[in-house]
Specification:
By secondary structure, the protein is an alpha/beta fold. It contains 14 helices and 15 strands. The chain binds pyridoxal-5'-phosphate.
Length: about 425
């Protein structure tokens, strides 16, 4: 079944909007995607139909309680988690991660070691460095190659010692686009008894996630990057979550996920997550049926089929974009460019050119209704490691499955035009 872009785009009202008489071109998807009608309807539904606190003895409260339960079940299916109790919702990835530093910190002794990487978004970097400085832990940083934009797993092995207790790992980079070999990395760390915390914020919009297959202890993502509302999701393996001491109110039950979901939950957020999952299921069945696996639960198989179909199409977008950029004199793409390796990257493409101010490029593209990000995109460890911190960072062009090849051609032409004049 072919990837029918018109049908896909028809689900996203924002794609119909114009910018000063031109169609808007959304290429800032790594910072946040547009949402389909399923999400808009689901958010509205929650605010109209069940705007009540959970666990009350009246109709709308029962509907709210059921909604929250269904949202946990749906996310567990998306990740192929063993139980909905392994899903913790929160405002966003960063807030959930800071919460986890407080919860996990007491497990570690001064002198224990943690590993992080140069490929992290700051959301999976600073929180753990703060935890380390609070508790006297040693931080070791895994570099990535500035030639191949990936990790050397032997180097990871060399960082692991009997004192290594924890690792924060980037699944896919929001600057380079690299997808890291997470299963292998987690397996190496698990074999040494290290707790693994995977940042899947950039991978989740572009590929299927199976936490049981990955074997990780924790995995975080944000629904607004995978076509949902502004809401964060933390997966924690049941055996990890159960003994953890949560900072919760005394009236909250001492079980997961309740003990980590403090205060009134965002019903509209969780409902919107359900809407995003409904959209992905639609896409998986309508356009990814050739990828439907029979060895997975139905909803998991549908979502994973959607992700696989999207990734296939996105390889064409990456190819066109990278080829176009590389044809412009002196443009340097910071990421994997070999088409035979596109399975190891998401379609996020960052570039620089000597003397180019990335902000000026983004402003020029905005004048043409083309939206891209410039700077460090909060991935300061990456930008510093690339030596670009004092050069304004990069220009980041981030297509996703609803973008067209024509949009990619248009942005490449505009970039070429700007660079020829500057
Ligand atoms: C790789 C990565 N990790 C973490 C985050 C932070 O996510 P949130 O905005 O949900 O805190 C982002 C946001 O862009 C990201 O790209």
């Amino acid at each position: 079944m072919s990837f029918d872009l018109d049908r896909i785009r028809g689900h996203f009202p924002a794609l119909e909007l114009e910018h000063a008489g031109r169609p808007r071109v959304y290429l800032d998807n790594p910072a946040g995607t547009q949402v389909p009608t399923q999400v808009l309807d689901a958010v509205r539904w929650a605010l109209v139909e069940c705007n009540a606190n959970m666990h009350g003895n009246f109709h709308t409260s029962r509907v709210a309680t059921d909604l929250v339960h269904r949202a946990h079940e749906a996310m567990a299916d998306m990740y192929h988690a063993a139980s909905p109790d392994e899903i913790v919702f929160g405002p966003n990835m960063t807030t959930l991660t800071f919460m986890m530093t407080r919860v996990l910190g007491p497990l570690f002794e001064p002198g224990d070691e943690i590993i992080t990487t140069h490929m992290e978004h700051d959301g999976n970097n600073t929180p753990w460095r703060r935890m380390a400085s609070d508790r006297g832990l040693v931080v070791k940083t895994l570099p990535f190659s500035r030639d191949t934009y990936d990790f050397d797993l032997d180097e990871l092995a060399s960082l692991i010692t009997p004192r290594t207790r924890f690792a924060s790992l980037n699944y896919a980079s929001n600057i380079l686009g690299t997808i890291n070999p997470m299963r292998e990395m987690v397996a190496m760390l698990k074999a040494a008894g290290v707790i693994t915390y995977v940042d899947a914020v950039q991978y989740a919009p572009h590929g299927p996630i199976d936490v049981q297959e990955l074997g990780c202890d924790f995995l975080v993502a944000s629904a607004y990057k995978f076509y949902g509302p502004h809401h964060g999701i933390l997966y924690g393996r049941a055996e990890m979550l159960a003994p953890l001491h949560a900072y919760k109110l005394s009236v909250v039950p001492d079980r997961a996920p309740d003990k980590f979901e403090t205060g009134t939950q965002s019903l509209e957020g969780q409902s919107g997550v359900l809407g995003a999952i409904e959209y992905l299921q639609w896409l998986g069945t309508a356009m990814g049926s050739q990828h439907l696996r029979t060895d997975l639960p139905r909803r998991t198989a549908e979502i994973h089929a959607a992700m696989t179909a999207m990734a296939e199409y996105e390889h064409a977008l990456s190819g066109r974009l990278i080829e176009g950029l590389q044809a412009i004199p002196e443009v340097h793409v910071h990421g994997i460019t070999d088409p035979t390796s596109f399975a190891r990257r998401v379609p996020t493409v960052s570039f620089t050119r000597e003397g180019l101010d990335p902000a000026a490029m983004a402003e020029f593209l905005d004048q043409h209704g083309v939206y891209v990000w410039n700077g460090h995109s909060y991935a300061l460890p990456v930008i510093e490691w690339l030596g670009l911190a004092d050069k304004g960072g990069v220009v980041r062009v981030g297509p996703t499955h609803y973008n067209t090849l024509d949009e990619v051609d248009a942005v490449v032409a505009l970039i070429g035009e700007f660079l020829a004049a500057h």
